[in-house]
Amino acid sequence: MNLSHLLQERASQDRPLRVGVIGAGKFGTMFLSQVRRTQGMHLLAVADLDVKRARASLVETGWTDEQIGATSAAKALAQGSTWVTDDSDALINAGGLDVVVEATGVPDAGIRHALAAFERGRHVVMVNVEADVLAGPLLKRKADAADVVYSLAYGDQPSLIAEQVDWARSIGLDVVCAGKGTLYMPEFHASTPDTVWDYYGLTAERAERSGMNAKMFNSFLDGTKSAIEMAAVANACELEAPAGGLTFPPCATGQLASKLIPSSDGGVLDKKGTVEVVSSRTREGIDIPDDLRWGVYVTFEAPTDYVERCFSDYGLITDESGKYSALWRPYHLIGLELGVSVAWAGLMNMPTGAPRDWKGDVVAVAKRDLEAGETLDGEGGFTVWGRLMTAADSREADAVPIGLAHGITLKHPLPKDAVICWSDVDEPQDSVAYRTRREMEKVFANVVPAPARGAA
Q1: All structural domains of the chain
Q2: How many Cα neighbours within 13 Å face the side chain of 57?
Q3: Which of 155, 161, 103, 99 lies closest to 132 in space, CA to CA?
Q4: pLDDT of residue 456
Q5: Average pLDDT, stretch 182-203?
Q6: Are 226 and 360 within 8 A, CB to CB?
Q7: Is pLDDT of 446 > 90?
Q8: In the predicted model, is pLDDT for residue 204 greater than 90?
Q9: CA nearest 111: which of 445, 437, 442?
């Protein structure tokens, strides 16, 4: 509750937090719109392979040519302006930089940038949740060893969920389930970039004019992004991934306390202490009033009869027994809220959520029957979608994580819905992400996972 005051103090002392952003896509651009207005922060540099696009993003969000006119990091530091470059390594190594925001969305790039930032002593806010789910638990350990912060990105749903879980545990409540909402139907798993706009009610031409990326939006639709985000939550909050993957139960906000609880108590969960995504639409195609499509939630249990009575006294929505209740947030503002993570890392040396264990993973599953010799095209593509799985099950199967299921070739045919394993493909030995992922698997191979907090 004091971040804004601490930032104002830094501004009055002419000691702003120096921030560098790698990736000027939608999330990064939303942050650019707000960091310009945030006292105590200095956007030192923006790196993007498309410098023209990065400059256009800055101009669109209110930056003047004078503000983004620095020709080097050194001049940006001296002038209090911003340098725009296509050289991410130069940004990471810029003098005076405090915090790196990694917003490329590319797992290999995200892991490479994080490792370089740790070596240079920079805090990292990992917007790139794909990279976090691929190797985040190991990246967190490496950040700790370098005495820097590795953080999930506030404004993105995993960090907001982690905040709600932290709230519940900090006041002595047992977390039963945590997650988010989305629009889901079973047939979405087979969606491709060619069919995605039909589901969104758009034409391909309209989407292109709006700058909408078909693969990215298809990842939101086909269940991959939901799985990735829930794996991040499981790893950050010591919760379990459902053994059979996400089930996407249809649920209104007023039903969270009665549905997102164990089946033994009338809900839909196999056990306490899990993650789950709720759908804003029934399986019959009916949109639910008071849905949580854009929001996040946590369900929790009263530890005593006294607390149950407090739930009743203060009007909490509960299940029939009165012992379960829920807290939810209907919206998230993604990159507009990212400054909270930058401030927590730079001022408090603490993350807004970070992986503490390897509990959940997201594995590649065939969208259709695949032929030998086909090249997988990764998240949101034509060949695979990402299913949430426990880390233990993924490790036992030696499954290909969705973050590495791109540009690799199948050795033999696989049927639709098959989990793709490393024995099925040619492994990308020269990939930084692949090597880091394999290192993480070895590091955690002999670690006995902590039980889910809240699990029975």
Answers
A1: 3-156+336-348 (3.40.50.720), 158-184+223-331 (no CATH), 360-425 (3.90.1210.10)
A2: 24
A3: 103
A4: 44
A5: 92
A6: no
A7: no
A8: no
A9: 437
